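Reading group handout, session on sequence-to-structure problems. Before we discuss, look at one worked example. The prompt was deliberately terse, the way you'd type it at a terminal:

> structure Large ribosomal subunit protein bL28

The input record follows.
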Amino acid sequence: MAKCEICSKDVHFGIKVSHSHRRSNKMWKSNVRKVRVNQNGAVKTMNVCTRCLRSNLVARA
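And the output record:
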């Protein structure tokens, strides 16, 4: 599932509006990557969003 294990960023919902103003539900998924991470001296695979990767909140293995 598209959920970051660091910041808990998840899917969010809204309303998509077309050119003729017809409305329908829309879901946006966060940009999550499966990354090998050093955590407390151990290598672990985690789902991390690209914002956390870019801001160095995790140390890649």
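Points for discussion. First: The first strand starts at residue 12 and ends at 17. Second: The chain has one domain: 12-60.
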